[in-house]
Each structure stands twice: as C-alpha cells, then as structure tokens.
Specification:
Layout lengths: L3 H16 L7 H4 L5 E4 L9 E6 L5 E6 L9 E9 L2 E8 L1 H13 L5 E6 L3 E5 L11 E4 L5 H21 L2
Antiparallel strand pairs: 1-6, 2-3, 4-5, 5-8, 6-7
Helix pairs in contact: 1-4
C-alpha cells in the first residue's frame, strides 16, 4: 500500500517536471505523464471502487479499485518497443515497484490490471488479464494509443522517473 508521503512525492515530481520552463530545454524534456495501475475488484462503495471503460473502439467495462497499487513513482524506465508488426509499452519498475507487481500478480491471477495515464489528456490505456506472476518487474502491454501518443507517454514517464530517482536514490 502506498504511503501518503510516496503519493505526495509522485505528485510533486509530476508538478516539478511539468513546471520546468527554460528556453534551452526542448518540449520533450518538459513533458510529464502519470501512469497508474488499478486492480480489478468487485463493486464496492464509490470511494473504494469505480467502473471504467477501457479501449475506445470496442470498450470493455472494468470495476477497479479507486487507489492505484503502482504509479509513475515506481517506474525505473519506460520505452516503446516493436512487437510482431505493432508496438507496445514496456515498463521496468524499481525495486519497490517490482515487489508490488510480483505481490499483486501472484495473488490476483485471472483479474485485470487497468492502466491509466494522463499525458495532456487522460485515458485508460489497457486492461490486460493477469495470467501469471511477474517477478522481474518488467511489464509490457499494448496501449489504446497511437505510436506518437505512446512515445509522448513514455517520454513523460521517464522525465518523472528521473526526478523521482534524484529525490529517492
């Protein structure tokens, strides 16, 4: 469970990266993106769970926990990778993020992980089903986004991760 201080630091990092304004820096260096992993759950009171629509072309509705179990503060590095004629987003989590990912994927096989990002617009990117334990901290998914949007998301996540790594060596 994320502490309030850790959540605050993640929000602060996003705000710092977003507010950096120097004429010598490119727009890509100033981008900031969020990344939130929410676990599928049974319907509960509004403050504990919320139904979300994932995939714009053919939406599926998933009821998820309101609080994410992983966020951009747990990311070590993100990248867009080519896979079988398409592309995917690959997230490498830091030590704490890897531990949380392993715990949640071990205990919740068959449930979905709904992935949310804010990158200039807010969108649910994917909701893959947990099929096995992920013990190496590497999570790969196909986003409901264009390649350009995916690269913008990844760049923003990496910018936030750099700030977070400086604050928490």
């Amino acid at each position: 469970m994320a502490s309030r201080a850790a959540r605050f630091n993640a929000y602060l990092a996003v705000a710092l990266v977003a507010s950096v304004g120097c004429g010598c820096k490119s727009a890509k260096e100033k981008e900031a993106s969020t990344l939130r992993f929410h676990l599928e759950t049974n319907p509960a009171p509004v403050e504990r769970s919320v139904p979300v629509a994932v995939y714009r072309a053919d939406p599926i509705f998933v009821n998820v926990e309101s609080a994410p179990f992983l966020n951009e503060g747990h990311v070590k590095q993100a990248s867009v990778v080519d896979a079988l004629g398409a592309f995917q987003i690959m997230i490498q989590f830091n030590r704490k993020g890897s531990w949380l990912l392993e715990q949640y994927t071990t205990a919740n096989k068959g449930k979905r992980i709904a992935i949310f990002s804010q990158f200039g617009q807010a969108r649910w990117l994917a909701a893959p089903v947990i099929v096995n334990r992920i013990g190496d901290g590497l999570f790969v998914f196909t986003p409901d986004a264009t390649r350009e949007e995916s690269e913008r998301i990844v760049n923003g996540i990496n910018n936030v991760a750099k700030v977070m790594q400086k604050d928490n060596p």
